[in-house]
Amino acid sequence: MYFDMQALEGKNTYKLMGSVVLPRPIAWVVTQSEDGVWNAAPFSFFNVLSGDPPVVALGIGHNGDIKKDSLLNIERTGEFVVNLVPASMIEAMNITATEYPAHVDELHKAGLATLPSEKVRPGRIAGSPVALECRLWKEIDIDGKRNIILARVEGLHVDDAAVIDRDKCYIDGNKLDLVGRMHGAGWYTHTRDSFQLARIPYNPEES
To answer: Could you give phi then psi for residue 7, rounded to 5 degrees?
Structure first.
């Protein structure tokens, strides 16, 4: 079935995009306001765009005509931390997805502790197996109601148990036990069911 995306209402293009690009990693973003108020919120319009230099992209929609606290904090301070969500912390992540007023500390509401970052002011979520310390590089205003954040990853924390070889930077992704977003509201998936498929080398003699 074909969908003409330019002919559909925004709510329907959103549903389609969120239902077919699967699974989507979850950026559990921690920011701080200029006066030190913490904010934590999950975003699934997120991914890695470049490994060298390390760059991530984060899509943040507005609440109506009002920018979300995470976006305002990133714009004003240029810093944030992306934590990835393990299965053991899915309930806490869901609490931080609540649309609390700006003065509410979502980390406190979810009972989450933080650890200090190395290069940015916002801390990282203790218990998250991966944390990416990010600095704003470019911001793209799509339509006045949605923004794309491109950020350089300046530091990376990985759970020791998942590090196979520090010198070679080998990580066992299975040990991270991450979750991702699936289609529709409230649907998630585990990343436990993985498989390996070797890349086929090109053979000029077959041409």
So the answer is: -95, -5
CB 135 within 8 A of CB 120: yes
Most distant CA atoms of the chain, gap in Å: 66
Per-residue pLDDT tens digits for 51-81: 999 999 999 999 888 899 999 999 999 999 9
Domains and their CATH numbers in the chain: 20-190 (2.30.110.10)
Residue 101 has pLDDT above 90, yes or no: no
The size of the chain, in residues, is 207
Quickly count: other Cβ atoms within 10 Å of residue 24's Cβ: 19
Reduced 3-state DSSP string for the chain: CCCCHHHCCHHHHHHHHHHHCCCEECEEEEEECCCCCEEEEEECCEEEEEECCEEEEEEEECECCECCHHHHHHHHHCEEEEECCEHHHHHHHHHHCCCCCCCCCHHHHCCCCEECCCCCCCCEECCCCEEEEEEEEEEEECCCCEEEEEEEEEEEEECHHHEEECCCCEECHHHHCEEEECCCCCCEEECCCCCCCCCCCCCHHHC
Which phi and psi (to 5°) does residue 157 adopt?
A: -110, 130
Residue 21, number of CB atoms within 10 A of its CB: 13
